Amino acid sequence: TSTQTQNVIINDVTLPVLDAASLSDLTDECQVNMPTIPTATDNCAGSINGTPSVTFPITAQGTTTVTWTFTDANGNFVTQDQNVIITDVTAPAPDLATLQTVTDECSVTLTAPSATDNCNGTITGTTTTSFPITTQGTTTVTWTYDDGNGNTTTQDQMVTIDDVTAPNSVVLADLT
């Protein structure tokens, strides 16, 4: 009888195979949370979950490319890109349907109203009108709510200055 030693070397050099030929775009107006994690199949280990190149949720407006990396137990890896597209198309909604008309005799300084935005929460109105308003008559103040993503809403508020108080008479003393 004779014996012989033989070395058996297992060397996995085969890349994982992507389970999907391409990954569909993920879209939303405000944010995209962690999606269903894509997978690849490895010849030795079976199914492998992808690891994303960014942290979720993604809230930045525009397109973010996420690179998913699929690495097997032997260091072989393959990558696949997926687009995350955030596009806010909803304008802010004023918190009050109608702003009250403000009336005074001499001057008015207004407090800015607010609106609610689907992505950015509460937004304070801005105006180009200079305060205080002192001109007699009615002035229209246009408030603008801007969500910072290209969506704006405007709302008008009327200010009436109406001086109805007669001046006080002062009697001057006769100094002769």
Question: In words, what does this structure look like?
Answer:
- With 176 residues, the chain is mostly beta strands.
- It has no helices and 12 strands.
- It has strands at residues 17-18, 26-28, 39-42, 46-49, 62-71, 77-86, 93-94, 102-104, 114-117, 121-124, 137-146, 152-161.
- The strands form 4 sheets. It has a 3-stranded antiparallel β-sheet, with no helix packed on it. Strands 2-6-5 form a 3-stranded mixed β-sheet, with no helix packed on it.
- A hairpin with a 3-residue loop joins strand 9 and strand 10.
- It is rod-shaped, with a radius of gyration of 34 Å.
Characteristic key phrases:
176 residues; rod-shaped; three-stranded antiparallel β-sheet; mainly beta; three-stranded mixed β-sheet
Distance between the termini: 153 Å
- Element-by-element helix/strand order: EEEEEEEEEEEE
Largest sheet: 3 strands, antiparallel
- Percentage of residues in helical conformation: under 10%
